[in-house]
Amino acid sequence: MEVSNLRNLVDEEVVLKTGNAAGIGLAYGTVWGGIVSMIRDGPQVGSNVKYPELVRIGKVCGNYGASVALLGATYVGIEQSLEKYRKKKDYINGAVAGFAAGATVLGFRVRRLPTAILSGSALALTSVLLDVTGMKD
């Protein structure tokens, strides 16, 4: 396949919005992780690691940042793809994207199916409520 044919298969708007959501999620998650790690109790000082508090803050920031970035990218990517595929911009796109993002990112992280279903349902409900009340976009 030629490069020009590959570009026709990928919608640039979906890729751009997904990348933006991932970047914003990474920034937000990293800041939130820093706040959370400062509120928690620190590790024992007697370990052989140099600057143990700084290492822990970095790990927490990275975990929170990666989780929120993945959540945002999954949600926006699925929502935009459904909008392009269905040619409709309604609450169903957000509900499906919310369920998929919540179930995959939040639910399967703990490796329990009931948690995945509950997390997906909670995120889908939140998305539908934001769409119906007009608070989104």
Automatic annotation (TrEMBL):
Question: What keywords would UniProt list here?
Answer: Membrane, Transmembrane, Transmembrane helix
A GO cellular component annotation in the UniProt record: TIM22 mitochondrial import inner membrane insertion complex
Q: Which domain of life is it from?
A: Eukaryota
Record-annotated membrane-spanning stretches: 91-110, 116-134
Instruction: Using the record, list the residue span of the signal peptide; answer none if the entry has no such feature.
Output: none
Q: Where in the cell is it found?
A: Membrane
| GO terms classed as biological process | protein insertion into mitochondrial inner membrane
- Its source organism is Leersia perrieri
Residue stretches in coiled coil: none
Record-linked InterPro entries = TIM22
What protein name applies here? Mitochondrial import inner membrane translocase subunit TIM22
What Pfam families does the entry give? Tim17 (PF02466)
The UniProt entry lists membrane topology as: Multi-pass membrane protein
Taxonomic lineage: Eukaryota, Viridiplantae, Streptophyta, Embryophyta, Tracheophyta
